[in-house]
Automatic annotation (TrEMBL):
Family: In the N-terminal section; belongs to the PINc/VapC protein family.
Protein's organism: Paenibacillus contaminans
Protein name as catalogued: PhoH family protein
Matching Pfam families: PhoH (PF02562), PIN_4 (PF13638)
Gene Ontology cellular component list: cytosol
InterPro entries named among the record's database cross-references: P-loop_NTPase, PhoH, PhoH2-like, PIN-like_dom_sf, PIN_dom
Length: 443
């Protein structure tokens, strides 16, 4: 039996191709959704881009027929812009205020009521990324669901970049004797990915263990290239940080992704590795550091001054880490250091579109606030001889239409986890302070 799916505005703003995701069913777009799209189309961000894309898509459907009567889609479904189900009478006793959300709910409710009067009623499903809209729909007796097609992976199945295996102690002895292990010799029932880290532990319960990394072709386990020496004054404080430095300093891995809670050292490790590669090894010409301009809490509005002055509040976390690495004592000293070096550029992602960036060590902080389209735009800017590091905490997202399963960082991690040119590690242990670790765990 075919179903009727009523789409909320936020579904189309998140995925402008969502109308094609419902198979051979009927897709309904309430007229208020068009009005909300119209209010968003002038925005310069991705929400505005998606609103314009949906507008062009619907305009293309007009050539095939009248949208208010329904237009057939290539996948066997139909799309319809609904004009005649806006009656709010049935909802006034429950939700008296005529808001845009309630008007969308009214469309779904009126469709549901009509279908129940038919001999073979179709299921009516309201699709929304707004939790409260789905709750309201449930109160009204409607079926409601989140839009799941944009989810890359469930939070519990996210790739961590590290696995612990319990093996016979003879396997660990073999590794220390020959300094490598064949992946086939482990006889695993699952596949190890390129540059995945493996911790071997004695299945007999002794303290014997080994830390290894899968090589680029996924066939061999090798020891870590780095010992635990300091990198630009920073020493790894736990196993995951050591793994992160291994990826960051490996010139054969041009794409590195790191995820983890606040205080796990993502930004500090990336900056230390970048400075080492540029100032000590001269592997890259410049260190480019960028982060999306997405506020936590209420936006503070327009800021005065030149571009550097406007960006400073957004980039302050980067400057905090640079001040620590350069051990500056007075306010303003870091600007003098950066001006003297000339090889470090702190930038907002707003200015990265259209650029080609060869021979640079690129750090993208707070990548969890990027959409799939935005992260594709950024990674596709990387030129020959460059290395890009994407990092963030998928649990701390300030973007209104993204979550831990649909953000750009998670998207890159999952799409590149089987590629030999990329490596990923999830940092778990906080090292900022005991208070910060407790806050991350308890709050």
């Amino acid at each position: 039996m075919k179903k009727i799916f009523v789409l909320d505005t936020n579904v189309l703003l998140q995925d402008p191709n969502a109308v094609f995701a419902f198979g051979e069913n009927e897709v309904i777009i309430p007229s208020i959704v068009l009005e909300e799209m119209d209010s968003k189309k002038r925005l310069a961000d991705e929400i505005g881009r998606n609103a314009r894309y949906v507008s062009r898509l619907l305009d293309g459907f007009r050539a095939q027929g009248r949208l208010q009567d329904g237009v057939a889609l290539e996948n066997g479904g139909t799309i319809k812009v609904e004009l005649n189900h806006r009656s709010f009478v049935k909802m006034q006793d429950v939700f008296g205020e005529i808001t845009n959300d309630n008007r969308i709910l009214a469309v779904a409710l009126n469709y549901h009521t009509e279908e129940q009067e038919k001999p073979e009623p179709k299921d009516v499903v309201l699709v929304s990324k707004d939790t409260l809209v789905r709750i309201k729909a449930d109160v009204l007796g409607l079926t409601a669901q989140d839009y799941m097609n944009d989810r890359i992976v469930s939070p519990t199945d996210m790739y961590t970049g590290c696995i612990t295996l319990r093996v016979h102690p003879a396997v660990i002895d073999e590794f220390y004797s020959f300094r490598f292990l064949s992946v086939n010799s482990l006889q695993l029932s699952f596949k190890l990915r390129p540059h995945e880290f493996v911790i071997l532990k004695d299945e007999m319960g002794t303290s014997k263990s080994a830390l290894l990394k899968v090589n680029g072709d996924g066939r061999k386990l090798e020891p870590l290239y780095l010992s635990n020496e300091a990198v630009w004054g920073i020493t790894a404080r736990n196993a995951q940080q050591r793994m992160a430095l291994e990826l960051l300093l490996n010139d054969e891995i041009p794409l590195v992704t790191m995820s983890g809670k606040a205080g796990t050292g993502k930004t500090l490790l990336a900056l230390a590795a970048g400075l080492y590669k540029i100032e000590d090894e001269h592997k890259y010409k410049k260190l480019l550091i960028a982060r999306p301009v997405v506020p936590m809490g209420k936006d503070i509005g327009y800021l005065p001054g030149e571009k550097e002055e406007k960006l400073r509040p957004w980039m302050q976390p980067i400057y905090d880490n640079l001040e620590f690495l350069f051990d500056t004592k007075k306010p303003g000293d870091i600007e003098k250091v950066l001006a003297g070096l000339g090889s470090i550029q702190v930038e907002a992602l707003t200015y990265i579109r259209g650029r080609s960036i060869p021979g640079q060590f690129i750090i993208i902080d707070e990548a969890q606030n990027l959409s799939r389209h935005e992260v594709k735009t950024i990674v596709s800017r990387v030129g020959e001889g460059s290395k890009i590091v994407l990092m963030g905490d998928p649990e701390q997202i300030d973007h209104p239409y993204l979550d831990a399963s649909s953000n750009g960082l998670t998207y890159v991690v999952e799409r590149f986890k089987d590629e030999a040119i990329s490596g990923h590690i999830m940092l778990e242990r906080g090292e900022r302070s005991r208070l910060a670790q407790l806050a991350a765990d308890l709050l």
